[in-house]
Write a structure and sequence with these properties.
Protein name: Multiple inositol polyphosphate phosphatase 1
Radius of gyration: 23 Å
Family: Belongs to the histidine acid phosphatase family. MINPP1 subfamily.
Organism: Streptomyces caeruleatus
Structural class: alpha/beta
Main location: membrane
Keywords: Hydrolase, Membrane, Signal
Number of helices: 18
Length: about 450
């Protein structure tokens, strides 16, 4: 989390005041309350966005012929132990000085146990919950499209599985493939070994992300905007509040402003990752990290986490596509796979891709998915008050975009018709404004219409 001197515009000050006014309203114990979930940012755990029984049926005569997805890996341990190391070092120092509060005395053993569990799982690796999330998503995919997978098995079509090559994405790919095979054993010999495509699924670190990396490292507008939002009185107030739950006030007062923010951020980060580690908690009762910071403070640090992701990976600055243009390669692959199916040049029944938040978030912005449609201006920086973007909704752990493709055979010499339905986190989702479904409120879009809407040069229309 970045920190620099306060430089609040009136619009930003108004938006931040709105956040502070609404954050405490979350009811106690409401783990699924929207405000509480938002406080976890992109560390929020996965849940399907729609009951499968409520999906629209395809129009008469259309049958499923192909499905494809891109999925973030499932819930995981923290990528390293730095947060726990930092705050536990402070906790031990305060303990030696007799400056722990009652909550502070309880905090240390819980943080140590959580750190040990993450170390045992492996930093950055899938947790038990993450494995279940991915497996269960695969099973739901098979149950959603039983006719398609029966067709795939009957016609011996292939299922291609590809990942970024990073461990948790590879593991997610393999678990998803195993889940499909478990749901329909006839699919097992048709599922290819997981292959790696860095350019497609780790593009922020590949050649196609060079301009983006320069933006992250050198763009002064980005740096000054993040500083102005992060390092201001509300952050220092929240940091002090978090630490005073654990340590006596005189101990907290001895720390520098920067050290207070760093330590409070570490406490928040342990809070944010704890639900992802729920399976590793003995008894499955949760880690109880929410006891150590108020909903108001969790909401504030969650907002600051979202600020970084919004400006560094998401819609970013209005009028600039530097954060998401590089996702073109992934959207292009979605279209190419469907177009190959229509052309009869593909022997695939499914294309399954596994990646990271750094790819899901830009793709959502590029496609104009819900919450990812509005950039921020210098006059109106990103706030919860006037922008719908939330990391917990856009790219939670296990998040995914899926296209299901349906075909109706042509008659009287007419070509076959192909329809596409998009699911975003397993919720039927409209394509961006300007794309017209086959009927009002329908989840189905003619492929020709999508090609027109997204400016595909090889449109068949």
């Amino acid at each position: 989390m970045r920190r620099l001197p306060p430089a609040l515009t009136p619009a930003l000050a108004l938006g931040l005041a709105a956040l502070l006014a609404t954050a405490p309203a979350a009811p106690a114990g409401a783990a699924t309350n929207t405000a509480t979930r938002d406080s976890y940012g992109t560390k929020a755990t996965y849940a399907p966005g729609q009951n499968a029984r409520t999906y629209q049926r395809p129009p008469a005569g259309f049958t499923p012929v192909f499905t494809e997805n891109v999925s973030r890996h499932g819930s995981r341990a923290a990528t390293d132990g730095e947060d726990a190391d930092l705050v536990l070092a402070l906790w031990k120092k305060a303990g030696a000085a007799g400056r722990l509060t009652a909550k502070g005395r309880a905090f240390g053993p819980k943080a140590q146990a959580l750190q040990k569990a993450m170390s045992t799982v492996g930093y950055g690796d899938l947790s038990g919950r993450g494995k279940r999330e991915i497996h269960d998503t695969a099973v739901r995919t098979q149950r959603r499209l039983p006719g398609l997978f029966k067709k795939i098995a009957g016609e011996k079509e292939k299922i291609d599985v590809v990942s970024s090559g990073q461990g948790r994405a590879v593991d997610s790919a393999n678990l998803y493939a195993a889940g499909l095979a478990e749901a329909d054993p006839a699919l097992k010999p048709l599922i290819g070994p997981t292959r790696t495509d860095v350019d497609l699924l780790y593009f922020h670190k590949a050649a196609g992300g060079a301009a983006y990396r320069d933006y992250i490292a050198n763009d002064q507008r980005l740096a000054s905007t993040l500083k102005s939002i992060t390092d201001q009185p509300a952050t220092h107030r929240a940091a002090r509040d978090v630490l005073k739950k654990l340590f006596k006030g005189d101990f907290v007062d001895q720390l520098s402003d920067a050290d207070r923010v760093a330590a409070a951020t570490a406490v928040y980060n342990l809070y944010a990752i704890a639900p992802a580690m729920s399976d590793e908690r003995p008894g499955g009762k949760g880690w109880g990290m929410e006891r150590f910071l108020s909903k108001r403070d969790a909401a504030w640090f969650g907002y600051l986490s979202d600020v970084e992701d919004f400006y560094e990976k998401g819609p970013g600055f209005a009028g600039s596509d530097i954060t998401y243009k590089m996702a073109d390669v992934l959207l292009d692959d979605f279209f190419k796979q469907v177009e190959a199916k229509r052309a009869g040049t593909s022997d695939l029944g499914a294309e399954l891709r596994f990646t990271h938040a750094e790819e899901i978030i830009p793709l959502a912005a590029l496609m104009g998915l819900p919450g990812s449609t509005k950039g921020a201006t210098a006059e109106r920086p990103y706030t919860y008050a006037d922008n719908a973007w939330r990391g917990a909704s856009v790219a939670p752990l296990g998040s995914n975009v899926q296209w299901d493709v349906f075909r109706k055979a042509g008659t009287g010499g007419k070509a076959d018709t192909y329809l596409v339905r998009m699911l975003y986190n397993e919720k039927e989702t409209a394509f961006k404004a300007g794309c017209h479904p086959i009927a009002k409120n329908s989840a189905f879009y003619d492929l020709d219409e999508l090609e027109r809407c997204f400016g595909r040069t090889n449109s068949a229309s």
